[in-house]
Every structure is written in structure tokens, then in C-alpha cells.
Amino acid sequence: MDLLQWDDSFKLNIPRIDEQHERLIELIRDLEDAVQDGTGGLLISYVMQELIRYVGLHFGDEECLMMEYDFPELAVHRQKHSFYISRLQEILEQNRDGDALSTATLAFLKEWIVTHIKGTDQEYGRFIRATQT
Ligand SMILES: [Fe+2]
Question: Which of 13, 28, 39, 99 is deepest in the core (most CB within 10 A)?
């Protein structure tokens, strides 16, 4: 099954966040395409930079939302975000010379984000939805 196939199991039912998650999945899919097409390191670096920029904005937005609702697990969640951003930055650094991304690295980037959205993010989604009602 394609991990990056968008479906309702990704949804938090918070429209702004769902849109951002959908865009994130699209970017990872672009990255996967660039790796599989063998188009080379330049395109991969470009998509990676866009991914880092967008992930930064999105994680910031999520953390603001959690703060707004006093989500008790904010600190732990923030650590997870920082971990992913630092891994992305490391990978981009290693890729600056134009090397293609390894299958293992791509698998890590995909699996982490899918697991994060479907697991960790669902926790704050449930909390916020419960607080709203
Ligand atoms: Fe998150």
C-alpha cells in the first residue's frame, strides 16, 4: 500500500491543519518522484529546501494552536518536531554535493511524517476537538 496516498485516516478535522498536512504529503511525494526518476541531486536539494521551509511553517502553526488550547503534551510534541527538522537539515547538508537520497533516508522521511500525522497529531486533534465542543 502506498504510504503517501492521502485518505481520511490523515485527517484531524481541523481544516487549516488538514490542508497543510495534505501539502506536506504532496511534497514528500515530489521528493520520492525526484529520487525515483534519478533526476539528480539539484532537484532533490530544491524539494528538500522547500520541504524544510514548509515543515517549519507548519510545525510552528501546530505549536501555536496547541498553545492556544493549552495542550498538555506540547513540550513533547515540540521535541518531536525539532527532531524531524534537524534530521531534514542534516540530510540536506549531506545532499548539497548533488548526491541522490538513499532509499533508507527517503523511507525514514516518509514513515516519520505519516506516523506522526496519523499518531501524534491525532492526539492533539482529539484534544482540540473535545475542547471546542
Ligand atoms: Fe505535529
Answer: 28
